[in-house]
Amino acid sequence: MLDLADVQGLVLRGYTMPRARHLVLRVDSPAAGRELLGSLVDGDPRRPQVTTGTPWTEKPDCCLNLAVTAGGLRALGVPEESLATFPEEFTAGAEARADRVGDVGPNAPEHWLPVFRDPGFHLLVSLFGQTPAAVERVTDDLLAGTGPGLTELCRLDAALLGDRVDHFGYVDGISQPTVGDTPPPGPPDRLPVAPAGAFLLGHPSQFRDHTYPVPQPPALGRNGSFAAFRMLAQDVDAFHDLLAEQSRRTGASPELVAAKLCGRWRNGTPLVLSADTGTPEPPVPAEELNDFDYAADPRGERCPIGSHVRRMNPRDSRVAGNGGHKHRIVRRGLTYGPPHDPAHPRDGQDRGMLGLFIGVSLRDQFEFVMSQWANDGRFAPGLGRTQDPFLGAGGTLPLASPGGGRARLTDLPRLVTTRGGAYCFLPSVTAIGHLAGR
Ligand code: HEM
């Protein structure tokens, strides 16, 4: 049985809160760092506390979670023998692993926001609030309790745009893995339930007879997770130009082009369930928006095999290694930057998505998905060396049409650029106490 009170809440459930703030802190003195961590789990209701997986009786107005980089563990005084038991991708860090996930060229670390390359990126405190005021209040409470010895390097704010849409106008956050015996986090799917060990250390994983090694000591490693914290800029003007240009070339409506790129219409309706219109009659009920697989669409005539959602979660599609269910990721993201106003295009504003991609293994989940499924197409029939239409460096999206025809969208521009990445450990509540020296 999972001890929900020991697990950080955001691993198991989305808080569905419209505001987020990610505070990046440097630990200058281990004692100050330990004091902060201890205060987050000491049960004192007057101080911000880490939000756990325990179900709410009443929804709070702000939630808090804590992530630590390998540099952060060191700064808190974790001995090298213990650090050596953490997976090497985590201790190497996002910058060192950049080329594996396509962070090259314009995505490369030399173009990132400086904080992501700052060796003082030790702690990431993520706040999720019902209102801006709730986030401000918890920020103040948190920082009021920190003395010298901790330095705030940066705060990155994110917010919900309209009705769960991203800057390209798609409803996002529909599909998340159902974990162990916890309730489905959104509309249920028909995929195998992911074992808790696909997201938490110390439990049987998604691979048969395999449990990921728990970093030592167990009080530090067990019930922890790993997360890739990512800041991804979205070029909304390039996206609009792309819809117009591909519509002109192919005769498809701009909305159909948008649906083919994603695999869902912008209102969230899956192409597999409605291939010709995003507003079928009757509409696809909200609770069925995730209730599909690709068994009846093996060639991708409805939902392109290379579309974003089919690459990121191929479900029952044929993929190299038959691992379609083994690399699932929990996503916790919101948009940053001002909404794009089509009346004032090319405003030069930075906007995009900011959030955490969570799993038990950075290598087998985030890095695998980015390297094998997003940035290469050889895992699936007919994709060749194409890349994800959202995340790749542009190129081609093969389309299959009924009757055996093949077409493709070509000259796709780069739509998303990495502005920063950090590899983090999400310690359990026990582990936060352990790090605090309790
Ligand atoms: C700015 C960049 C991105 C945009 C605009 C974007 C957009 C979307 C949208 C609109 C959906 C459909 C909604 C849903 O099924 O919940 C989706 C699903 C998904 N995305 Fe992304 N995404 C981005 C980055 C990423 C990255 C970096 C990853 C992985 C590392 C990723 C993994 C996924 C996964 C796993 C799904 C669910 C697929 C499914 O279960 O059917 N996305 N994304």
Structural account:
- 22% of the residues lie in helices and 19% in strands.
- It contains twelve helices and ten strands.
- The protein has a four-stranded antiparallel β-sheet with strand order 2-3-1-4. A four-stranded antiparallel β-sheet has the order 6-7-5-10. The chain has a two-stranded antiparallel ribbon with strand order 8-9.
- Helix 8 (236-250) packs across helix 9 (254-262).
- The mean pLDDT is 95.
- Residues 303-325 are annotated as: Disordered.
In short:
The protein contains twelve helices and ten strands.
**What count of helical segments does DSSP give?**
12
Number of strands: 10
Kindly name the structural category: alpha+beta
Query: What string, H for helix and E for strand, traces the elements in order?
Result: HEHEHHHEHEHEHHHEEHEEEH
Arithmetic mean pLDDT: 95
Q: What would you report as the Rg, rounded to the nearest angstrom?
A: 21 Å
Percent of residues in helical segments?
Answer: 10-25%
In what order do the strands lie side by side in the largest sheet?
Answer: 2-3-1-4
* Sequence stretches where pLDDT stays below 50 over 5 or more residues: none
Key features of this structure:
438 residues, alpha+beta, four-stranded antiparallel sheet, 12 helices, globular, binds protoporphyrin IX containing FE, Dyp-type peroxidase, Dimeric_a/b-barrel, peroxidase, metal-binding, oxidoreductase
